[in-house]
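Per reviewer request, we include the raw input and output of the structure prediction for the construct analysed in the revised manuscript.
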Amino acid sequence: MEETAPISVNDLKIDMARREATLGNGVLDLTPKEFDLLAFLASNKGMVFSRKQLLTKVWAYNYAGDTRTVDVHIRWLRQKIETDPAKPKRIITVRSVGYKLEG
């Protein structure tokens, strides 16, 4: 079994092997899909992904309908990892494109 080094983005650490994310010294209480989304964004730090791309990569399906489930999960993640979720500094919205994780 291949060991994967934890991903670090400033004080945010994602341990893929343990499926655990920490912020500072605290363990984040994430749902499995929140973890998958955060891990994907952290693995591709700085890259912008559309809602449709995130559905394909994180949810593993093509969905022609409403992509708001991505927005909801982003909002939940922001509530858990941002100092001020209304003014995010980590998960950034790129207007008319999608989302990215900044360091």
